[in-house]
Amino acid sequence: MSTESTESTTQTGSCPEPLPFPVGPDFRRVTRQVAVRWGNRTVMIGGDAPVAVQSMTNTDTVDAIATAIQVKELSLAGSEMVRITVNTPEAAREVAAIREQLDRMGVDTPLIGDFHYNGHKLLTQYPDCAQALSKYRINPGNMGNGKRRDDNFAQMIEVACRHDKPVRIGVNWGSLDQDLLARKMDENSQRSKPWTAQAVMRDVLVLSAVENAQRAEQLGLPGNRIVLSCKVSHVQDLVSVYRDLSQRCDYPLHLGLTEAGMGSKGIVASTAGLALLLQGGIGDTIRISLTPEPGGDRAKEVVVGQEILQSLGLRAFAPVVVACPGCGRTSSTVFQELASSIQEFLRAQMPVWRLKYPGVESMNVAVMGCVVNGPGESKHADIGISLPGTGETPIAPVFVDGQRVVTLKGDNIAETFQGMVESYVQRRYGAAETVDA
């Protein structure tokens, strides 16, 4: 036994000294890289590109103005690509107008056309639509049956080749290739130990996605213009399908539950499924399919997607506000209100700050409610404040870069601290702007 091993055994008894557990996600799965372009804007999917966030409008595409406005809102929230429904000739006719309106507003976010049932006709009959879109979403499961399906699929791939557009081949749980499913069910019945029907369906999803991607390549579409997805509604099915899919191909993968649901259910389900896959190095672009509440903000799904990636340490989109949950020491709502207003303030500034202050998205701000963890968390943040809890002296120390710089008192603590945050951003991150200039 070596001296090192002896010392290790001596220190810990009969067990070797433990090594620290690794921190962070697994290495990203190696994939081809797909470029989605509009004008001077290029969003890369896969390869060494960061995981991209995308969303989808829920306006009637025939209303070009309303659709363009919502695309702009989603873009400002951080959606790097936006998908729009193209389901009728009237909708297809308006796609070019939507693109023109966005260009006039200075929004260069790539548009993805979502096609079902009649995409082969719409892309062929409306070439302006085909050109104005940056990417097509194709679902082979609802393009007909047999030869008709094959012909319709080939027609869409031919249009993509002609206009030099990438495609996402998206297979859905609710629109599986019934011929392939029937064949695989028959084969399964011949097994000595047949799989469950759910397992066969998961296998068919993956097989359909891969086979259609391979056929697209045979039809002339380069492999670096293909993204795959296999959408399901349940978390465990999602994780199983994508783990399988990731081992059967090297195309970049689009992640998301096909119907996540409303409110906290949709957020939790999406987070649970996507976090497991992203932590395992699987996934190149994501969409959080939340059902909005009546009158709700569509951009919420963009924020949720960003926060999943930021929580996993994969990307940084906006400064993080650390705030305690509150307890019996913090019966005052002052710290809750301040934490909420600071978070809203930071997000509202990000469209400008992202361009003006490089690196600001990685800033940490602490808004704490009492002396237990308040000073410690504030010291660890870039800038933090520890507000007085119930019965504590009504003063609020502020820490900047780990040092206590001032103690705030009075009725204007919230406004003063927000001003300090803004001054800190200008002083620390504005230096990068000056250097670049």
From TrEMBL:
Cofactor mode of binding and number, as noted: Binds 1 [4Fe-4S] cluster.
EC numbers on record: 1.17.7.3
Pfam families per UniProt: GcpE, GcpE_C
Stretches the record annotates as Disordered: 1-24
Start-end of Low complexity biased regions: 1-14
Catalytic activity field: (2E)-4-hydroxy-3-methylbut-2-enyl diphosphate + oxidized [flavodoxin] + H2O + 2 H(+) = 2-C-methyl-D-erythritol 2,4-cyclic diphosphate + reduced [flavodoxin]
Residues annotated as binding [4Fe-4S] cluster: 324, 327, 370, 377
InterPro entries listed in its UniProt record: Dihydropteroate_synth-like_sf (IPR011005), IspG_bac (IPR016425), IspG_bac-typ (IPR004588), IspG_C (IPR058579), IspG_TIM (IPR058578), NO2/SO3_Rdtase_4Fe4S_sf (IPR045854)
GO biological process: isopentenyl diphosphate biosynthetic process, methylerythritol 4-phosphate pathway; terpenoid biosynthetic process
Cofactor: [4Fe-4S] cluster
Biochemical pathway: Isoprenoid biosynthesis; isopentenyl diphosphate biosynthesis via DXP pathway; isopentenyl diphosphate from 1-deoxy-D-xylulose 5-phosphate: step 5/6
Example GO molecular function: 4-hydroxy-3-methylbut-2-enyl-diphosphate synthase activity (flavodoxin)
Its biological purpose: Converts 2C-methyl-D-erythritol 2,4-cyclodiphosphate (ME-2,4cPP) into 1-hydroxy-2-methyl-2-(E)-butenyl 4-diphosphate.
Family per record: Belongs to the IspG family.
Protein name, UniProt field: 4-hydroxy-3-methylbut-2-en-1-yl diphosphate synthase (flavodoxin)
Species annotation: Pigmentiphaga aceris
